[in-house]
Amino acid sequence: MSVEYNADQKIPHPAMWGVLYKSSTPFWDGVKEKRVMLQRCKSCGYWLNPPRPMCPKCRSQESEWVAAKGTGKIYSWVTFNESPHSAFKTPYEAVLVELDEGPRIVSNVVGINSDELEIGMPVEVTFEDVAEDLTLPKFKKVG
Ligand SMILES: [Zn+2]
Predict the structure, then answer these.
(1) How far, in Å, from the CA of 124 to the mean position of ligand 1?
(2) Global pTM?
(3) Of 42, 117, 119, 134, which is least surrounded by CB within 10 A?
């Protein structure tokens, strides 16, 4: 049930997000090295997800990037029947994975059929090179 891509269409690169991409550059650099990097407030330990310059809990502007374990569970998902971009073949599921550290990230699950998805299903990260210049973190069922 992984997302299938139309080979004749270029997959949009997250760099097109501009300032949002810049603030999450350590995340994307980590993905290239097959790690899930998360931003954490150095003052109070709050996870800054999505990445941001200031902690909403304590207003500190000091943060650090740490590698997540890469494990979590399915928090929710949605089926796309209409493609948001011509590169993505439908239908496919976009899942919200709650990492063991707490932050939730949007991704896809690979290796199972869509009717096997369950809320709470344990998953672990895997990495898929979807284009020459783009690797994405995806998740697969554990066990
Ligand atoms: Zn803080």
Answers:
(1) 27
(2) 0.89
(3) 119
